[in-house]
Design brief:
The protein has two domains: 6-96, Orthogonal Bundle (Arc Repressor Mutant, subunit A); 101-222, 2-Layer Sandwich (Beta-Lactamase). The protein has eight helices and nine strands. It has helices at 6-11, 51-68, 71-78, 85-100, 103-109, 117-125, 131-139, 178-186; strands spanning 17-21, 34-37, 42-46, 146-152, 156-162, 172-173, 188-193, 206-213, 216-222. A six-stranded antiparallel β-sheet has the order 6-5-4-9-8-7, with helices on both faces. A three-stranded mixed β-sheet has the order 1-3-2. α2 (51-68) packs across α4, α4 (85-100) packs across α7 and α6 packs across α7 (131-139). The radius of gyration is 18 Å and the shape is globular.
Length: 245
């Protein structure tokens, strides 16, 4: 039932209430448009037009519930420098994505060298999983630092899964992300690009591959990309911070 009907499974979970909310309401720092309120046993999910997105969000928030009730995981998260925020988000994304996209299926689409943007689109087109789940499963296959990003046509990062320690927050405008801008104009693009983080900082260059899919752009940014036989870049992927006065 968890795979076939995640929303109903979460509604039926002992000690959990699930509510659908307007997508315009704030959802905090979570990587998805949802929230988990531990003290109330409440999970909220954006009332999105995409059922796949609702399923991924509900499973992500269920992941928070499961972690908060596992003493061994609580201790591990508490020992992290940021009190486990990033690790917890990664685990929740991974849990939701693996439920919706089993490993054997991902293996059939993404090769050993890692994902291409077109393969992320293929995962989405040939499965019942959300775009977000496909991004997570793609990012898990990146070799080295990188990101798999879902943006709107106006260049706003709706969701980003990362294989590096630097993250892109939901709703971060990707001005300066050349491969996303090129894919908006031409439908697809491969070029060197930079990622814009929520702080406004731009990364050093990544190899980028992006494809337009309806109203969205799927973009893969990696140091060791699957689509190139060499990986020379003009810099490294660490963020560029403004020089101090």
């Amino acid at each position: 039932m968890l795979t076939e009907d995640p929303l109903e499974a979460v509604r039926s979970w002992p000690g959990i209430m699930l509510q659908l909310r307007s997508e315009d309401e704030p959802f905090g720092k979570c990587s998805v448009a949802g929230s988990y309120f531990e003290e109330r046993g409440l999970i909220t999910v954006a009332r999105s037009a995409s059922k796949g997105r609702q399923k991924f969000t509900a499973l992500h928030e269920l992941g928070h519930h499961l972690q908060r009730h596992d003493e061994s995981l609580v201790k591990i998260l508490a020992s992290e420098p940021d009190a486990g925020f990033l690790l917890e988000e990664d685990i929740c994304d991974g849990f939701a994505a693996e439920v919706l996209l089993p490993t054997h299926y991902v293996d059939e689409v993404i090769g050993e060298r890692g994902p291409k943007a077109g393969e992320i689109v293929e995962l989405f087109k040939t499965s019942q999983a959300s775009r977000e789940a496909c991004c997570v499963r793609g990012a898990q296959r990146i070799i080295g630092p990188g990101h798999v990003m879902l943006t709107t046509r106006d260049g706003v990062a709706q969701f980003t899964a990362s294989s590096s320690s630097y993250r892109v927050a939901r709703n971060t405008l990707q001005d300066g992300n050349e491969v996303v801008a090129s894919a908006v104009r031409w439908g697809s693009a491969k070029r060197e690009t930079r990622v814009r983080y929520a702080s406004g900082v731009l990364s050093e260059p990544f190899h980028g591959d992006a494809v337009t899919d309806s109203d969205y752009i799927f973009a893969v940014m990696a140091i060791k990309p699957a689509w190139k036989s060499f990986t020379m870049l003009s810099g490294d992927p660490r963020p560029i911070f403004p020089e101090e006065d």
